[in-house]
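Following up on my earlier thread - several people asked me to post the actual chain instead of describing it. Fair enough. Here it is, all 65 residues.
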Amino acid sequence: MSALRSAFFDWNLNRVVRVAVSVTAVFLATRLTDGLLVGLGVVVALAIVLDVPWWLYDRYAQSDK
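Reply from S.P.:
Thanks for posting it. Predicted structure:
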């Protein structure tokens, strides 16, 4: 149980952004689509589109170090 507890409490900014992007993508997909397979496709596409700016920022921030 300690490994699970440490996974819950060891949240960094990268994990928070990924969870926020995932939740936003699922929410938008459920509002925009009515089918399961189409919704899954929209979730994946939105997750990629919403995650690219964070990935670019993180990559740029790591290159400065």
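Residues 26 and 36 are 12 Å apart (CA to CA). That should answer part of your original question.
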